[in-house]
Specification:
Shape: globular
Number of helices: 5
Strand order of the largest sheet: 2-3-4-7-11
Number of strands: 31
Radius of gyration: 23 Å
Distance between the termini: 34 Å
Largest sheet: 5 strands, mixed
Structural class: mainly beta
Length: 469
């Protein structure tokens, strides 16, 4: 699996001036069409254009060096937040050219503006007569916030690149990081988060000195570096970490700032452990995936051998996500670009796969179920696409015809697109990780070689329940 960012370059802000030629009434009108990455090719003179109307919110930012991994930090601003502008807290680890240049960024992004609208607005005939003016007024009324997001950043020195970082669910100021040096460290970022919470949005945007802070724990027991890391959602402080030498270690909290790491690893894979996920409901169960193409199920009460294991893909299994709304479902993404949905209730029958998709053209780098809708998940890939899927959907020709009629336009979507595919986001290079925001329904953040994107697709927002948590 290709996980590192080749030849990382520090991001720099560039002022790009738009160039437009003189318009001509005699120029032919070119109808826009859907472009499929990996299928269609751009001809000479053609260019891709983002359709801003597809998003309720879309912003980009960076913190300097590219980040392979990040995580949201749960905040006290409330759940089910729908009103713009939004404020979000993060932790992220850098991939710098030199080991000594790396850091963990603890940051706040505020003034995330956007708008909410119906996917197909209900209009009467009278409304249609004044469509242009009413749409304009409605758009203005629904906008929340203005200007660009404000980034406030605090950097904590970290020797070596950060392979993965995760904030604890129950105590989000506690974070664990995997270093390419082979060390796993646990940090307390309370002071940095408090400083960000108390600071005004007019503070310095992005500029920050580097703080030297010692981690709470620095575990050197792994035999190699790794990428697999997950906090238990049911037992505060319980952690598992997996390395490239196929070993998994269990961490148990002994106090608020110390952990006992079992020196005897769980061993069941024949190759690198790529990802780990705790059960959302069972405190002693977790799953792992590996370069050996398998997924293993573990029960920490049953010793160091896997309780069950099955072949999941024909290539490396890079990432997995356990559905917290439907705990029998697991999603897995592979190095061959495919992703599968597994139902643990079929484990005894020998084949857990209930859905398999071959849409992406390159390795799947991240996969995650929506925390608000059991059938929705997002996938990122090395083909520079983020895709969002609703597995409950099926092709409905009558519904498509009604949609075209209501929108008064022809939707020229390729016939071979899966009906479950809701949205495709592009524009980033070497996408590495995505996360849904658990407190802001419909918000997704991605990290890539060229920085972060914050996006809220307009059609995803409308699929979420109004009482999301």
């Amino acid at each position: 699996m290709a996980r590192s960012l080749k030849n990382p370059k520090k991001a720099k802000r560039k002022n790009k001036s738009s160039k437009s030629g003189a318009s001509s009434s005699s120029a032919p009108v070119i109808q826009p069409r859907v472009w499929q990455p990996g299928v269609d090719e751009l001809e000479e003179g053609e260019e891709l254009q983002c359709d801003p109307s597809a998003y309720d919110s879309l912003h980009a930012f960076h913190i300097g060096w590219p980040c392979l991994s990040f995580d949201f930090v749960h905040d006290s601003l409330g759940s089910d937040r729908k009103d713009f502008p939004h404020t979000v807290y993060f932790v992220a680890g850098t991939q710098a050219e030199k080991a000594s240049w790396n850091s963990i960024g603890v940051f706040k992004v505020s003034n995330i503006s956007g708008k909410r609208r119906e996917l197909v607005p209900a209009k009467s005939e009278e409304d249609d007569m004044n469509a242009e003016s009413s749409d304009s007024e409605e758009s203005e009324a629904e906008e929340g916030g203005s200007g660009t997001p404000v980034l406030q950043l605090r950097k904590v020195a970290h020797h070596g690149c950060v392979n993965r970082i995760r904030a604890m669910t129950q105590n989000p100021h506690i974070c664990a990081s995997w270093a390419d040096s082979g060390h796993v460290q646990v940090w307390d970022f309370t002071s940095h988060l408090n400083a960000l919470a108390e600071s005004e949005s007019e503070g310095v945007q992005g500029a920050s000195s580097v703080f030297n802070q010692a981690p709470l724990v620095n575990f050197r027991g792994h035999k190699d570096e790794g990428y697999a890391l997950d906090w238990s959602p049911t037992v505060a402080g319980r952690l598992v970490t997996g390395d490239c030498k196929n070993c998994i270690h269990l961490w148990e909290p002994s106090s608020g700032s110390t952990w006992n790491v079992d020196p005897t690893p769980f061993i069941g894979h024949s190759a690198s452990v790529e990802d780990l996920q705790w059960s959302p409901t069972e405190p002693d169960a977790f799953v792992s995936c590996s370069v050996d193409g398998t997924i293993a199920i573990w029960d920490i009460r049953l010793g160091k051998k896997a309780a069950a294991s099955f072949k999941a893909h024909d290539a490396d299994v890079n990432v997995i996500s356990w559905n917290r709304q439907a705990s029998c479902m697991l999603a897995s993404g592979s190095d061959d670009g495919t992703f599968s949905i597994h139902d643990f209730r079929l484990l005894k029958e020998g084949n857990t796969v209930v859905a398999h998709f071959k849409y992406h053209k390159h390795a799947v780098t991240s996969i995650e179920w929506s925390p608000h809708e059991a059938s929705t998940l997002a996938v990122s890939s090395d083909d520079n696409q983020l895709t969002i899927w609703d597995l409950s959907l099926e092709k409905d020709e009558e519904e498509e015809a009604e949609f075209k009629s209501q929108t008064k336009e022809q939707v020229h979507a390729p016939e071979d697109l899966p009906p479950q595919l809701l949205f495709v986001h592009q524009g980033q290079k070497h996408l590495k990780e995505l996360h849904w925001h658990a407190q802001i329904p419909g918000m997704i953040v991605t990290t890539a070689a060229d920085g972060f994107n914050v996006l809220m697709p307009s059609n995803i927002q409308n699929t979420l329940p109004s009482n999301g948590s």
